[in-house]
Design goal:
The complex is a heterodimer of chains A (368) and B (181). Chain A has 368 residues and is mostly helical. In chain A, 67% of the residues lie in helices and 1% in strands. In chain A, α2 crosses α14. In chain A, 39% of the residues are buried. With 181 residues, chain B is α+β, with helices and mostly antiparallel strands. In chain B, strands 2-3-5 form a three-stranded antiparallel sheet. A two-stranded antiparallel sheet of chain B has the order 1-4. The termini of chain B are far apart. The chains are: A mainly alpha (368), B alpha+beta (181). At the A-B interface, α2 of A face α2 of B.
Chain lengths: 368, 181
């Protein structure tokens, strides 16, 4: 034991790992914070309002021009929101199952973080994929497997809260996630059938699928699969119009009714983390990943091309985060039975048929 | 009258798929988004108050700077939430407007009780109490929410008045005194 501890203290590699982990968490929290800001601003614009434009810090307000711009754009607001979550009293209700109640937000957030560090979002001039961890070229199956673990957080939260509305929310959420996982998987299978069939050794790698999209993007070859996948990620991330687990109007706050302060904040970050994951997967598989335009995979060469590629990926990601918000303020929430009907009786058959058609096409023509 | 039978045609596949409707909805929200916001940034920008707005009740003076209220207490009696409290007082015999005889010694309107109904303005025979354009009353304690006479005149100011009721009465009295009635 003592040797282990000494090893732990002396081995500097641990410190780097810990520092990297902290930086990653900061980045994810910041992304989540600014997604919330985007959500608030975009909803305000759609409703003819202005949105957050008051929060400021004296030190920032002191900067001429920029300080005012940051205040009007609400760019300081996420810091205020985050600090509010951090400093609120972290109440523990008396009627909850305490261990699981504390565990639930962690279980909800951890899968999102794990998948986020694995996501490739660019390519180095040497040809290696850029992501937050090395050796991140894992298959899409791993991503789906881990990211759908997030449902355990919701189920656990609903059950441990020991209260009927969170429980209903959790049951709905789990049922919905399981239902849409099928259609999602089948739509992804169609894409991989086309780009990484037998004879190619990259299997289910996301980097390979981006490499395969140097010409036309997959959304042009697989519009139906893209549509099914898009609808499924809306359901998987519990966003409108599929936000069954926390339908405020009928379930108070849904699965996180009993949560407050930083624990609620963790659920929030997890939701936005899942949004980032869903959008990234869609971009990687259907929208050419870090390729700038269809038939124009790179602009410039060397480091410039890499940077522009990363920029292209983040531009697409920003558009998608905005799209989530845009859809949220456009469509009303589906009823629970409608959600189930769409999942099982529309999306699943469509995905199966789509897969079959492509399968037969490739089998009969040998084309790829 | 001929009955026109409206044919209820079944929904087309596109309509049943719900997707064109979603796209149309997205266009609606997009159009809303690029439209300029309608928000009024309240403490910085103030709304334009229309004339005849019934805001905080105030006491006004006539164009000669004389306080119009003669402390008849009609407003005190008519006030539904009993927000008005008047202490009547005499006007000194050597004052320039001694002919009016009475004026309020103290006049209090409790804005915590006031319901802005405007009955005081309606009932006032002297047109001395007016609900004017001030719409925001704030205070940090209960005393601050009770407007006393000085504050009521400060809020009310002077309103144009073509009647000159008491001037005319005075002139009439002087004329009659001259003619020896």
């Amino acid at each position: 034991m003592e040797a282990f501890l000494r090893d732990l203290l002396l081995n500097t590699a641990w410190y780097f790992t810990a520092a990297r982990g902290l930086i990653l968490i900061l980045i994810v929290m910041t992304i989540a914070g600014y997604s919330v800001l985007l959500e608030r601003k975009a909803s305000a614009w759609i409703q003819g309002r202005i949105g957050p434009n008051r929060t400021n810090h004296p030190l920032i307000a002191w900067i001429p021009g920029l300080g005012n711009f940051l205040m009007k754009g609400g760019f300081i607001q996420p810091a205020a929101d985050g600090l509010k979550f951090l400093f609120k009293e972290d109440a523990l209700p008396g009627h909850v199952r305490k261990t699981y109640y504390v565990l639930a937000p962690i279980v909800a957030l951890a899968p999102a973080l794990i998948v986020l560090i694995m996501l490739p979002f660019g390519k180095l001039p040497t040809g290696e994929a850029i992501s937050l961890t090395q050796g991140a070229d894992v298959g899409v199956l791993f991503m789906f497997a881990v990211s759908s673990l997030g449902v355990y957080g919701i189920a656990l939260a609903g059950w441990s809260a020991n209260s009927k509305f969170p429980f209903l929310g959790a049951v709905r959420g789990s049922a919905q996630l399981i239902s849409y996982e099928l259609a999602m998987g089948l739509s992804v299978l169609t894409v991989f059938l086309a780009t990484s069939g037998p004879g190619q050794d990259h299997g289910l790698s996301l980097v390979a699928i981006v490499d395969a999209q140097t010409g036309a993007w997959n959304i042009l070859y697989h519009p139906v699969a893209a549509l099914v996948f898009l609808i499924s990620i809306f359901a998987e991330t519990n966003r409108h119009p599929f936000d069954m687990p926390e339908s405020e109007t009928d379930l108070v706050g849904g699965f996180h009714t009993e949560y407050g302060a930083f624990k609620f904040g963790l659920f929030f970050v997890a939701e936005y983390g899942h949004m980032v994951i869903g959008s990234s997967l869609f971009i990687l598989m259907f929208l050419g990943g870090w390729h700038v335009l269809p038939w124009v995979p790179t602009v410039g060469s060397g480091a410039v091309a890499s940077l522009l590629g990363v920029a292209a990926f983040f531009a697409k990601l920003c558009f998608f985060l905005f799209f989530f918000v845009w859809v949220r303020w456009t469509i009303p929430r589906f009823r629970y039975d409608q959600v189930m009907r769409i999942g099982w009786r529309v999306l699943l058959p469509v995905a199966i048929l789509n897969l079959l058609v492509y399968f037969l096409y490739y089998a009969l023509t040998g084309a790829r | 009258m001929a009955i026109k039978v409206v044919e209820r045609r079944p929904l087309t596949l596109a309509e049943r798929s719900y997707l064109p409707q979603i796209l149309a909805g997205l266009k609606v929200t997009w159009d809303n988004m690029v439209r300029p916001p309608v928000t009024l940034q309240y403490p910085d920008e103030r709304p334009a108050i229309p004339q005849n707005y019934r805001g905080v009740p105030t006491l006004v003076m006539d164009p000669n700077g004389r306080e119009k209220c003669v402390s008849c207490q009609l407003c005190e009696f008519v006030c539904p939430p009993k927000a008005i409290r008047i202490t009547p007082g005499e006007i000194a015999p050597d004052a320039p407007n001694a002919h009016v005889e009475k004026a309020p010694q103290e006049f209090e309107i409790n804005m915590l009780r006031c319901i802005y109904c405007g009955l005081c303005q309606e009932v006032c025979p002297e047109e001395a109490i007016w609900l004017q354009s001030q719409y925001s009353m704030t205070g940090t304690n209960r005393e601050m929410m009770v407007n006393n006479k000085a504050r009521l005149y400060e809020l009310g100011g002077t309103l144009p008045d073509g009647h000159h009721k008491w001037d005319k009465k005075k002139q009439e009295a002087e004329r009659q005194a001259q003619e020896g009635h």
